[in-house]
């Protein structure tokens, strides 16, 4: 018979009386639970189950159970239930013990232990994968699915040092009750899978469950030892960098703004770090912020390089990784001041010089105008030109062509020219 929680609660009220009824020799006759089993219920997940000792059952005593996990990692807890779920790696085997206990006037009465175990999975040594690392990343879902955000998963590993060349590995992950096999592998030079990419998963980015990853394999020459590992989401989540970082300088105020990263976490869940790099003197300033804006007073006219990164703050979950820095943005200008000054100086000097030359020319023109007669009329000018050309013609045959191109109104003059 399974003692259910409500039944136990009813029993609680009567337990004091019943315990008082126990004779001293009975204290040492607590009987251990029976039919203790360990069942694998999922990747890196087992269910421990036992039954109350049938001989003990009719005593109606307020019994509890103490569970001790021996491997792979020691743990010890008490429960009134007759089953218990454990999330743990299984590639090193699993073993646990359970016993019946009874607290009586702050002294513990306990039965013998019953023991159960799962064997270490079969496989040749050195064939399982090593150095498994996984990261998750949140991407905005473009309306194709119900959830506004999707979590992608990327895992990489190294081939076991003694794995045969024909080894092939297969990766599975479990989150909550969902298990999926990888469909998109990267391979090494021997075509063995060494990385896996899930563009979307059942992982909840704000969830607190463990992520279980399991990698088994096959080969014609050896049994490949499977490997599993548990990951805490906060420790492997690669946060996106802040969005739309902008900066502007007004006088001596450098103001920087940004938006929260693509993430299922709301706006108040982020810590930021702002990095301001003065490109002129190489000085770095980093500031930790919890708001989406930062104002700095600058006394140095320079070009600044600004980057911001984000992390989910401890307000919303356990401290994890910083995002990458946002793309650098530049504000202000290093060269502007000296360049502008030089430009002004050169411009002023040039203008002064040109004015000086001009005035000199004007004066000379003035003198010239006084000394020389007025400019001749256009018609006579053309005639003059022809006079000159005719004069030159005497010396060279080539000039003939030039003449044609120079004269705007050919007419008899050209004819006259060619005849010449
Ligand atoms: C324990 O298991 C055996 C065999 O499976 C079964 O006959 C027996 O009824 C079980 N005992 C209890 C208390 O469930
Ligand atoms: C793999 O992990 C081991 C320790 O677990 C470490 O010593 C080794 O350097 C790692 N190898 C690589 C290539 O990262
Ligand atoms: C690997 O594990 C999965 C899930 O447990 C199983 O379905 C598959 O048959 C295993 N493959 C090999 C080669 O052992
Ligand atoms: C970032 O800016 C772009 C355009 O400047 C805008 O379309 C987008 O909505 C902004 N992102 C957020 C998260 O507001």
From TrEMBL:
It comes from the Eukaryota. The chain crosses the membrane at residues 342-361. The keyword Cytoplasm does not apply. Keywords: Disulfide bond, Glycoprotein, Membrane, Receptor, Repeat, Signal, Transmembrane, Transmembrane helix. Cell surface receptor that plays an important role in the survival, differentiation, and chemotaxis of eosinophils. Acts by forming a heterodimeric receptor with CSF2RB subunit and subsequently binding to interleukin-5. In unstimulated conditions, interacts constitutively with JAK2. Heterodimeric receptor activation leads to JAK2 stimulation and subsequent activation of the JAK-STAT pathway. Belongs to the type I cytokine receptor family. Type 5 subfamily. Residues 131-236 form the Type I cytokine receptor cytokine-binding domain. Residues 1-19 form the signal peptide. It is found in: Membrane. This is Interleukin-5 receptor subunit alpha. GO terms for cellular component: external side of plasma membrane. InterPro entries: FN3_sf, Ig-like_fold, Short_hematopoietin_rcpt_2_CS, TypeI_recpt_CBD. One of its GO terms (molecular function) is interleukin-5 receptor activity. Interacts with IL5. Interacts with CSF2RB. Interacts with JAK2. Interacts with SDCBP. The lineage of its organism: Eukaryota, Metazoa, Chordata, Craniata, Vertebrata. GO terms for biological process: eosinophil differentiation; inflammatory response to antigenic stimulus; regulation of interleukin-5 production. It is a single-pass type I membrane protein. The gene is IL5RA.
């Amino acid at each position: 018979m399974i003692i259910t929680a409500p039944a136990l609660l009813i029993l609680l009220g009567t337990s004091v009386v019943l315990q008082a009824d126990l004779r001293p020799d009975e204290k040492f006759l607590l009987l251990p639970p029976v039919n203790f089993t360990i069942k694998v219920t999922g990747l890196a997940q087992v269910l421990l189950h036992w039954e109350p000792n049938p001989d003990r059952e009719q005593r109606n005593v307020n019994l509890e159970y103490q569970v001790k996990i021996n491997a792979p990692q020691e743990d010890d807890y008490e429960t009134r239930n007759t089953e218990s779920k454990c999330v743990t790696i299984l590639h090193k085997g699993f073993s646990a013990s359970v016993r019946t206990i009874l607290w009586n006037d702050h002294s513990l009465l306990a039965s013998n232990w019953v023991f159960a175990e799962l064997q270490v999975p079969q496989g040749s040594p050195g064939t399982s994968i090593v150095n498994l690392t996984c990261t998750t990343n949140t991407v905005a879902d473009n309306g194709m699915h119900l959830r506004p955000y999707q979590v992608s998963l990327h895992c990489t590993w190294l081939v076991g040092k003694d794995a045969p060349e024909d080894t092939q590995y297969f990766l599975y992950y479990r989150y909550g009750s969902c298990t999926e096999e990888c469909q998109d592998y990267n391979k090494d030079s021997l075509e063995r899978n060494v990385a896996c990419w899930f563009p979307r998963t059942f992982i909840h980015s704000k969830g607190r469950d463990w992520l279980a990853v399991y990698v088994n394999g096959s080969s014609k020459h050896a049994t490949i030892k499977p490997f599993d590992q548990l990951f805490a989401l906060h420790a492997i989540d690669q946060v996106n960098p802040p969005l739309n970082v902008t900066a502007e300088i007004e006088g001596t105020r450098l103001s920087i703004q940004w938006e929260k990263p693509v993430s299922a976490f709301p706006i108040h869940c982020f810590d930021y770090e702002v990095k301001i790099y003065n490109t002129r003197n190489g000085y770095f300033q980093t500031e930790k912020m919890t708001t989406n804006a930062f104002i700095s007073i600058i006394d140095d006219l320079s070009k600044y390089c600004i980057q911001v990164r984000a992390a989910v703050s401890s307000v919303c979950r356990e401290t994890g990784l910083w995002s990458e820095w946002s793309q650098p943005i530049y504000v202000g200008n290093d060269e502007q001041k000296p360049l502008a000054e030089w430009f002004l100086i050169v411009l002023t000097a040039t203008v002064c010089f040109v004015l000086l030359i001009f005035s000199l020319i004007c004066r000379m023109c003035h003198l010239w105008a006084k000394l020389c007669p007025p400019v001749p009329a256009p018609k006579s000018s053309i005639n003059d030109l022809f006079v000159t050309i005719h004069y030159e013609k005497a010396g060279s045959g080539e000039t003939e062509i030039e003449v044609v191109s120079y004269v705007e109104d050919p007419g008899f003059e050209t004819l006259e020219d060619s005849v010449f």
